[in-house]
Amino acid sequence: MSTVILPPRAHWHDRLMLWISKLSLTFPLGLTATVVGIMEVVLNIWQLAYQHDLVAQTKRRRQFWIDQAKASITGSPVAIVTGGNAGLGYETAKALVEAGYLTVIACRTEGRGQAAIDKIEAETGIKGKATVLPLDLSSQASVKAFTREFRSLHSRLDILVNNAGMMDIPFGLTAEGYEMQFGVNHLGHYILTLELLPLLHDGPQGRIVVLSSGALYSSDQINYDLLKSAKGYSRLGHYSYSKLANLLFVKALNRRLQQKRSKVTINACHPGACSTELFRHNPLMNLVMIPGKIVCRSPLVGAMSSVYLALAPGLENVSGEYFFDQIPRVPNPIALDEKAQELLWTKSVEFTGVDLKM
Fold first, then answer.
1. Burial 89-120 (b: 16+ CB within 10 A, else e)
2. pLDDT in tens, 151-205
3. 103, 346 in Cβ contact below 8 A?
4. Hey, which family's this protein in (predicted)?
5. What are the residue boundaries of the structural domains of the chain, listed by start?
6. Active-site residue set
7. Are 107 and 113 in contact, with CB atoms under 8 Å apart?
8. Bridge partner list, 132
9. CATH 3.40.50.2300 fits 11-351, yes or no
10. 78 - beta bridge partners?
11. Which tens digits make up the pLDDT trace of 210-236?
12. Eight-class DSSP state of 162
């Protein structure tokens, strides 16, 4: 691992995020979420100043993990990347293809998924290692249909990357009547994960990667009473609810996996402030992001923690952690609260009718 140079770590940033989580007890949710976003951009500037070859080092790390995975895989491994047609998901799917995984791109539009596959094949020269299956995470029926179709086509699943997400959107409800960001970012992936868990459990060493966000530091709780109507809706605030839910889910499921002595691991990661399509629903932020690309991470850099957790050797016994720049971090203290984890699990079962099947 001496050949791998990680991005410079800012301990001041770690301390600052924990300080913001304390502010969330008294300050408005939208305000603390905005402060988190600003600090993420500041961190990017600091890292670029300290590591001028950041992109080059990213590419070296990426290739190292791909080579290690190729050398260790057996049989014909299969992976799923939700939202694998664009941004962070595309870069993750591409790395998995290069590592030898048959990679299923799960996205709402098959045409966009196929376009991503064509691009992967053109850039890598690897043919026939990526497929697309339709998945609409805002519809629980669509998620269940996806899992049925996947199981009819594949008897194996090695890696599940819960990458897709929505951010900073006008108020809307999922097909089942839940706030859209929470419904897509958490509930849809909750169902997907539990429905596919038996396949992951039966494999050599299943890995689940959950894309969370630094936004989880901006909330001290999830207000479940605000998930079914526009009352109290905050575009960034409800996004922070969903990202906190991602980590609470990781902790709760990891505890259950350990109790069952499962070999499956589940970890969360934060990609950092990236230049992706997440702000596509906010015209003002889209304008801001034009010059903002200079200080925002590219999808290639942002996807590195996902690629690391999916492919890197030596992580077989690492589970239930929150990673940023390939290093475990201390999350918002509320995410470590077992009562909060179990409340999320109870509410998720209530909202979806799905519970652990293993």
1. bbbbbbbbbbbbbbbbbbbbeeeebbebbeeb
2. 999 999 999 999 999 998 999 999 999 999 999 999 999 999 999 999 999 988 9
3. no
4. Belongs to the short-chain dehydrogenases/reductases (SDR) family.
5. 11-351
6. 239
7. yes
8. 105
9. no
10. 102
11. 999 999 999 889 999 999 999 999 898
12. E
